[in-house]
Amino acid sequence: MKKVELYIHIPFCEKKCNYCDFVSFHSSYDVIDKYIKKLITEIEYKKYLLTNYEVTSIYIGGGTPSFIESKYISYIMESIYNNYNVAKDSEISIEVNPNSASMNKLKNYYDLGINRLSIGLQSANDMELKILGRIHNYNDFLVSYNNAIHIGFKNINIDLINGIPTQTPTSYKKTLKQILMLNIKHLSIYNLIVENNTPMKTMLDNNELQLPLETDLLKIDDITKELTTHYHLMRYEISNYAKTGFECKHNLGYWSDVPYIGFGLNSSSYFENKRLKNKSILNNYLNLDYSKYITIDDKSIYYDEIIVIDKIAHINDYIITGFRKTSGINIHDFYDTFNLDFEKLFGTALKIYQGMSLINKTQDNYYFTYDGLNVSNKILSDLLLKENEPNIL
């Protein structure tokens, strides 16, 4: 049976963070209730797409899923279990924030079969949390983390951000060390990206905040490498570190060409050589009529966007996602997917970057070195195929 992953989007938050440009917002109880009912209707009707698929992972993200009442998460999981073939060893994750991840909610998640938490800490420095617009402090995180351990969660990810305004290598090192001393199993570290039309962009433009210097960011990268190595967390993807056996199966699926279906506002799907984007305006989503057999091509009814992926686009997507993994791209898997020789197709660029010690090769895999990961965008721009190139396929 073919594999598929499910993503469930909960767009609601108690407060939008200063750096966030995701589709998320605060809403009333009535709106949340309507949204969950529509979401469950979507889950029920899209089952026809996946009759021959086994669900290997489920990810409930946001927004802040822990902001809404846990009964809604129960309704969602019940609908998934009733309508899809969920593998017995499926990884089921939910994102939570420290201020809303109460003991009762965590216990309910555990009882529902959710076996992985992703806690949005972002920093152990309370001043940095205020700058980010977070509404929790470090102590809130410790309470929720310890509660989760007490309940029985063994697979817990912690999210951190680096490059926060006022952050220094010293403050970052203190944050990272505090977290790693908890003997965590998984860590995600993201570089802050300041998006337009966010409060943080306005504050930076008005010189109310200053970003760390480039030299400090390089020191922060070195600190990450030093401490994660010391505490035995393996870097398995550009932004992710884990103890052996605790790598995120859901994200590895994204980076390994596994199809996925997104449910909810603005969620994305990758399925049957198409990329699809759900409705991004709340009222448009709430007014959808899931009353007939759904096919993947119901663009005018259900999707804002459908992109058909031709062979060149598929190869480029495969390269971009595959090289995110520190294990890189397996030449045999590439051949099985495209019936093409990876080394013949990309040999010139591969040799150049091998000579610069930015790409390494084992017997079967090409992968970025540590320095290569740090300049991955430049390397990828040279590897990606161009649509107007001569027909080399």
What would you note in describing this structure?
The protein is an alpha/beta fold and 393 residues long. The protein has 2 domains: 2-253, Aldolase class I (TIM Barrel, Alpha-Beta Barrel); 311-383, Orthogonal Bundle (Arc Repressor Mutant, subunit A), CATH 1.10.10. It has helices at 29-45, 70-83, 103-111, 126-132, 138-151, 169-180, 199-205, 214-230, 249-254, 282-286, 299-302, 311-322, 331-338, 342-355, 370-374, 376-383; strands at 2-10, 53-62, 86-96, 116-122, 156-162, 186-191, 234-237, 240-242, 260-263, 268-271, 274-278, 303-308, 329-330, 359-361, 365-368. Strands 7-8-6-5-4-3-2-1-9 form a 9-stranded mixed beta sheet. Strand 7 (234-237) and strand 8 (240-242) form a beta hairpin. Helix 1 (29-45) packs parallel to helix 2 (70-83), helix 3 (103-111) packs parallel to helix 5 and helix 6 packs parallel to helix 8.
